[in-house]
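Quick illustration, no need to memorize.
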Amino acid sequence: MKILKLTICLFAIASLLPACKKHTIEALPIDFTPTSTQANIKIVYASAYTTNYKVQLKTNDTRISGIITYSTPFSGGGLNTGGANFPDYYSIKPGAVKIGVSVPNNLMNTDSIALSSNVVNVDAGKFYTIYLSDTAASTKAFVVTEPKAPVEGDFSNFKFVNTIPNSTAIDLYFDGVLVAPNIAYQAVSPDFKLIRGATGQWAIRAAGALPNSTPIAVYPSGTGKMTVPNKLTMSVYSRGYLGKTGNLIPAISLLYN
């Protein structure tokens, strides 16, 4: 009788399976191998909403990322960001690329809330970082071309990108020294070098503010200091909104290029 009861139960369960609808997320169509015939891009989700939405990124209406939050690069990562600790890019067909950000429906690729949509243009064989800043219909996509040249000597290369929408211009300091002056919103500084092993704290101030004035934000926080790595290329970017708190607070992050 026990065997009979088990057989009946298994048959009943099996008969119910076809009626169950599975919600699946499609495999992400990502190629991390750089190529001369494709454009190589990464997207930095630096759009600061009051609610820290869990979002997906899409290119040309196809989902490319997992679920990410502010301020996460995809692909790759950095310091004071989400993401991995690698300077990854992914390959995409060159030309016009639609960049979409949305809150997905649960366990699906479809959009629950479409947050923003922008179109950028990229060329074959080049590397790009695309910074998304501001929110909703005001979201802007700022494209920075990355040279991907090897770093010479005992240095690392840096540049500064300002993604704070309500700023006019920002000065960037490292260890009390001005390294990138007067960088407007959605502008990028010239490259600068820091010697391997140097330690210091990053700070941003309004352009022209006194070097000893209270900074808008620092990284690392408190009295912490960062040690400059060897032969890396990194981008420092400011984010958030001046005068805001919570998820909107001004901050400094660093991106592996």
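Residues 176 and 211 are 7 Å apart (CA to CA).
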